[in-house]
Design goal:
Layout: E1 5-10, E2 13-18, H1 24-40, E3 46-50, H2 59-74, E4 78-82, H3 86-94, E5 102-105, H4 108-117
Parallel strand pairs: 2-3, 3-4, 4-5
Antiparallel strand pairs: 1-2
Helix pairs in contact: 1-2
Domain STAS: 3-115
InterPro entries: Bact_StressResp_Reg (IPR051932), STAS_dom (IPR002645), STAS_dom_sf (IPR036513)
Protein name: STAS domain-containing protein
């Protein structure tokens, strides 16, 4: 998973940085690791998915984002997606993927401020 995705504790959130060359195997490992960290780390209130490294998305990447957000929600953590490029947003909408389990924020700072407000 190293290099494809990383998970870092920032304040009361886990920052998940997803790289462009993520695979099915990487995602399974990421899902397991993320769910364990949400459940086991004290005070985690949210997950911030940083997709700024993604130049384009397809249904696989959209599904990955939705799955990670769903896992976080079931474990009582709110999900924010940051770093979304305009072309990525357009493509997700064209694919019919609206990501109802997550919110968007312009930056990590904005997402962390929203999480702090509750």
């Amino acid at each position: 998973m190293a290099g494809v995705a990383s998970i870092t504790l920032v304040g009361n959130a886990l920052l998940v940085s997803i790289q462009d060359d993520v695979t099915d195997t990487d995602i399974i490992e990421l899902q397991d690791t993320l769910s364990q960290r949400i459940a086991c780390e004290e005070g985690v209130r949210g997950v911030v998915l940083d997709i700024s490294a993604l130049e384009i998305v397809d249904t696989f990447v959209g599904r990955v984002i939705a799955q990670l957000a769903g896992i976080a929600r079931l474990l009582d953590a709110q999900t924010y997606v940051v770093g979304m490029r305009p072309a990525v947003a357009v493509t997700l909408v064209e694919l019919g993927m609206y990501l109802p389990e997550s919110r968007t924020a312009l930056s990590l700072t904005h997402a962390l401020a929203q999480l702090k407000r509750g």
